[in-house]
Write a structure and sequence with these properties.
The protein is of the alpha+beta class and about 425 residues long. It has 4 domains: about 1-90, Rossmann fold (3-Layer(aba) Sandwich), CATH 3.40.50; about 125-180, ATP-grasp fold, A domain (Dna Ligase, domain 1, 2-Layer Sandwich); about 190-320, ATP-grasp fold, B domain (D-amino Acid Aminotransferase, Chain A, domain 1), CATH 3.30.470.20; about 325-420, Alpha-Beta Complex (Glycinamide Ribonucleotide Synthetase, Chain A, domain 4). The protein is about 30% helix and about 30% strand.
């Protein structure tokens, strides 16, 4: 098979690394990719939202399957663009991608399908939103309704914080048109986990669970980020509970999407809260999480490529995946100043030493190579240092040993990834 992965981050590096191991693969490209991805796939200098150029490349190179990584092209309709050109693409349609593109769409779907979630209201008028907060009290959660790359959510402990979030999102338009409306919902309490499923429209196949760390600082302190690390499996979310979530959340969502005439095909990511009343949905995403993908794929024994093909073909009903009974962890190394103002351009050394360690993979997330071939930081989250082990402690020890081999004074990472599992 000839495969094109779309994206340039750590998630896409992990996808390319996994797909490159498939005996079914003839040729692998990634658009636009990064220097780490270039070790396992040929880079294509096309942006993730340049659909005409991506379609033309897929046609010219007889691509058998397109695998989009990030949410932006999926929510913008890359699967529809490929389908119109008769190019197989494993991702939801523009209509089905509204599960991530609109918070209120997902909430309405939950209500229709009987999926447990937080009580919520949608507002497109800032004053009405403020009045709701004053009436309901805090803690409360304010979310931009549209797509914000995981950054448009404020868990407000005080009324002032909630009102400031409404002003920033709806009036200052911190997230552009994504903040034209907000969803305000009750603040669920408990432990947060991520459950992933591969879907073919009607059938969902579990891809396992992971737990990530959103805050920039140790002990879950500081600003929210795209994710500072993740690990899998999750002791607080055992297999029986995962199966209950598949039955009570994932499959009812698929059935409701079919009923609406917009069947979901691709990776469905359920952000869940383990509350005292049971498992509740926080949100759906329509792709692998980042960095959860980097923690999950090293545990996969089966070939990922035929699984993706089976999902595209609608043949998951009789398909199965095998997983290694090991633990995996991903530690994010970020540029100084992240998430507010990451410093770019610093050189990163020692990557080969780290990658040479047994059971370690270093996935590039925000890197670029200069004219001399030196790897430099080009984003906020720059590297994912991943390791496997017999348990979370062993995986963590290996990952941090690899981190210490990377010579990058301008970078930093949390030192407590996996702390919940080791508690």
């Amino acid at each position: 098979m000839r495969v094109l992965v779309v994206g340039s981050g750590g998630r896409e590096h992990a996808l390319c690394w996994s797909l490159a191991a498939s005996p079914l693969l003839t040729k692998l490209w990634c658009a636009p990719g990064n220097p780490g991805i270039a070790q396992v796939a040929e880079r294509v200098p096309i942006g993730v939202l340049d659909f005409p150029a991506l379609v033309a490349f897929a046609q010219d190179n007889e691509i058998d399957l397109v695998v989009p990584g990030p949410e932006a092209p999926l929510v913008a309709g890359i699967a529809d663009a490929m389908e119109a050109a008769s190019i197989p693409c494993i991702g939801p349609s523009l209509a089905a991608a509204q599960l991530e593109g609109s918070k209120s769409y997902t909430k309405e779907l939950c209500d229709a399908a009987g999926i447990p979630t937080a009580h919520w209201e949608r507002f497109d008028d800032a004053e009405a939103a403020r009045e709701f907060v004053r009436r309901r009290g805090t803690p409360i959660v304010v979310k931009a309704d549209g797509l914000t790359a995981g950054k448009g959510v404020v868990v407000a402990a005080t009324e002032d914080a909630a009102l400031a979030a409404i002003e920033a999102v709806m009036e200052a338009r911190a997230f552009g048109e994504a903040g034209a409306a907000v969803v305000i919902e009750e603040c669920l309490t408990g432990e947060e986990v991520s459950l992933f499923a591969l879907c073919d429209g009607e059938t969902a196949l579990s891809l396992g669970a992971a737990q990530d760390h959103k805050r920039v600082g140790e002990g879950e302190t500081g600003a929210n980020t795209g994710g500072m690390g993740a690990y899998s499996p999750t002791p607080s979310f055992p297999q029986a509970l995962q199966e209950a979530a598949m039955a009570g959340i994932i499959r009812p969502a698929l059935a409701e999407m079919v009923r609406r005439g917009t069947p979901f095909r691709g990776i469905l990511y359920a952000g869940l809260m383990l509350t005292a009343e049971g498992v509740k949905l926080i949100e759906f995403n329509v792709r692998f999480g980042d960095p959860e993908c980097q923690a999950l794929l090293p545990r996969l024994m089966s070939d990922l490529l035929p699984a993706l093909q089976a999902a595209y073909d609608g043949e998951l009903e009789n398909f199965d995946l095998r997983w290694n009974d090991i633990a995996s962890i991903a530690v994010v190394m970020a540029a100084r100043g992240y998430p507010e103002a990451p410093e770019r351009g610093s050189e990163i050394r020692g990557l080969d030493l780290a990658a040479a360690m047994p059971s370690v993979q270093v996935f590039h997330a925000g890197t670029e190579a200069d004219s001399d071939g030196h790897v430099r930081a080009s984003g906020g989250r720059v590297l994912n240092v991943c390791a496997t082990g017999v348990d979370v402690q062993a995986a963590r020890d290996a990952a941090y040993a690899a981190v210490r081999l990377i010579d990058w004074p301008e970078g930093f990472c949390r030192q407590d990834i996996g702390w919940r599992a080791l508690r």
